[in-house]
Amino acid sequence: MNNMEADIILLPGDGIGPEVVGAAAAVLQAVAARSGHTFYMREYLLGGCAIDAHGTPLPPETLEACRRADAVLLGAVGGLKWDDPNASVRPEQGLLGLRKALGLFANLRPVKPHPALLAASPLRSERLAGVDLVVVRELTSGIYFGEPRLRRTLGDEIEAVDTMTYSQSEIRRVAHVAFQLARGRRGKVTSVDKANVLETSRLWRQTVNQVAKEYPDIRLEHILVDAAAMFLVSRPAAFDVILTENLFGDILTDEASTLTGSMGNLPSASLGAAQNRFGLPRGLYEPIHGSAPDIAGKGIANPVGAILSAAMLLRHSLGLAGEAEDLEGAVNDALSAGLRTADLAAAGEPALNTLQMTGSILERLAAGAVQRG
Asked: Is this model's pTM higher than 0.70 or not?
């Protein structure tokens, strides 16, 4: 697509969020400049910083801007400052509310260890051979959104209640995403549930089986979540597309990040039915790591997950597959050259800070790409 003009909302958030979003924004501007596009980027508040400024983690102006944008790039939310279990307003409510309001029901988290980083994983390198999987996580239902959600006093004891709910339509729509994705990959879907215990999981399994009938070319297997957690570290290469609900997906993808050497490497895309003006999903893109308050402000955060999230933004929301491949190639080249941030460097190895790693990726992007148009 030539001479594209796109509106991208930046939500730096808290902790290391501003640092990694700054890196991703820099590479997006570089992509735009060398490909003849114009990306208009505006920053808005979300999370703890929004609570401090407006008393709410999701200000109305932030939500309205995201609804009008072509795509949204997020850093991270939360931190020790707002980590009071008794607080009625928390940063994470802003992120959950944004996903719900934008209808972003499918979260895609690709996991493909870089060959040069196998030693950074706690798993033996032979376990990582051939690992190339995507987790499709349902994002707007389940226990994170179920009602009632409350604390109550029973006699002299306090009891807390969280409710897990799923409807057939919620399961069906995310299952279609997984099966369609598998058609462009190795043709296998692994559905993860807890059907031996949970009624929601029994409905999940039943509904996924119904959807599978529409995809006779795709192999479907069901695995309980505890077994899936074990298989992710014992035989991860056996997975292609993993389909699961909100809570299980949250936990399993953090575990899967160890396959790549660091949670800082993993990007994600949250997609729904709503389209932008290009007829593509108005997605929310973010690295899967948290706000990492222990290193916030030190300039040492790994920007790779955020930069690869920007590549997913180019591909899914702007239709710029070639530019996305160029950016991913620049990241791969930097890692292949032995460049490492502190979370990836072995003992005694030099470590680059956030700006240095970003600069190295920008250099490779400029050197390896051909002007598009």
From this structure: yes
